[in-house]
Amino acid sequence: MKIGFIGLGNMGSPMASNLLKAGHELVIFDLVQASVHKLLQQYPGKVSAAPSPKLLAQGGLDLIITMLPAAQHVKSVYLGGEGLLASITPKTVLIDSSTIDPQTAREVASLAAAQGNVMLDAPVSGGTGGAEAGTLTFMVGGAESDFHQWKDVFTKMGKNIVYCGASGNGQVAKVANNMLLGISMIGTAEAMSLGVSLGMDPKILAGIINTSSGRCWSSDTYNPYPGVLENVPSSRGYTGGFGADLMLKDLGLAAEAAKSAKQPIPLGSLAQQMYQTFSLQGHGGLDFSAIINLFRKK
Ligand code: NAD
Predict the structure, then answer these.
(1) Where would a tag sit more exposed on the chain, N or C end, judged by fewer CB atoms within 10 A?
(2) How far does the centroid of ligand 1 lie from the alpha carbon of residue 236, in Å?
(3) Rounded to whole angstroms, how far apart are CA atoms 121 and 148?
(4) Which of 174, 203, 259, 298 is catalytic?
(5) pLDDT tens column, 258-286
(6) What pLDDT, on the 0 to 100 scale, is given for residue 192?
(7) Residues near ligand 1 (Cβ within 6 A)
(8) Residue whose CA is closest, atom 1 of ligand 1?
């Protein structure tokens, strides 16, 4: 298949790489030229660069995947005279894997449907490690028949491909999951900091938590305490990974969605305030596990 890929950041680059490794031909676009050049150099002859989303859309592609930071970026890439929808032919299928609010996902998908284009929302979980290993979970919203028709392409980038229901429901699942992740990361950070400040070795403490009832993904796969795990952001100065500002964005999405459903989310709201504090202190660009620095002595 000839696939367009827009948004080659921490997640998009490894996802695009996995599609290339699976034998697909890619046309790519990102505002950051260095990310484009890196893939062009890594996969000569299998990937080409488009100068804009509009020109990428005119390339007669089977599928376009977007992996962008937030709803405003998705709107700017899809809508308006320079956007994808204005230039694609009806045969091109659209998959947005960015994490955005369900409402925007539904709006863009219904505009696509009105002009005859299939669109699926397919946010992911599994982090940059999962993107590199091709083991992401995809939470997919849209028509069930379209999900089954396009499921195979997700398997090149992920391991668990889950149909969540109508358009926007992939984003609903993602918002609930990430609110829990934000909360559990703060809980893990708090518990690790308490144990270490009271005299425990962080690796031994993590080992106990990970074989006890406190175990969670934040403790056993992405532990925020430096030196406990190799190859995670906490062991490389909280670089790479999932930015604290992106977690703040997701907690904001959860708060907005909860308001519309009149659903109380007290711990989600507290987590949002803590990430807001962390961001205000100038740390929004660090991986979200760096929230542990709120609890540790400098
Ligand atoms: P990122 O900031 O590393 O990458 C986003 C990319 O989009 C950047 O390369 C940026 O230049 C590009 N971009 C922005 N606006 C653009 C535009 N108008 N046209 C073309 N390119 C544009 O973000 P990321 O970590 O890759 O995350 C992407 C999405 O995936 C976010 O919605 C995030 O919430 C979600 N997500 C991230 C992780 C993670 O661990 N990083 C995990 C799950 C989900």
Answers:
(1) C
(2) 20
(3) 14
(4) 174
(5) 998 999 999 999 999 999 999 999 999 99
(6) 98
(7) 6-12, 29-32, 35, 67-69, 73, 76-77, 98-99, 124-125, 127-128, 241-242, 246
(8) 9
pLDDT in tens, 115-127: 999 999 999 999 8
- Mutate-to-test residue for ligand 1 from 13, 28, 30, 72, highest number of ligand atoms within 8 A of CB: 30
Distance (Å) from CA 6 to ligand 1 centroid: 9
How far does residue 11's CA lie from ligand 1's centre (Å)? 7
Q: Which atom of ligand 1 is nearest to the CA of 12?
A: 26
Superfamily of domain 172-294: N-(1-d-carboxylethyl)-l-norvaline Dehydrogenase; domain 2 (1.10.1040.10)
Q: Which atom of ligand 1 is nearest to the CA of 70?
A: 32
38 noted as active-site residue: no
Please tell me the pTM assigned to this model: 0.90
Q: Give the architecture-level CATH label for domain 2-166.
A: 3-Layer(aba) Sandwich (3.40)
Fold equal for 2-166 and 172-294 = no
Higher pLDDT, 14 or 126: 14
57-112 residue pLDDT tens: 998 899 999 999 999 999 999 999 999 999 999 999 999 999 999 999 999 999 99
Q: Where are the domains of the chain?
A: 2-166, 172-294
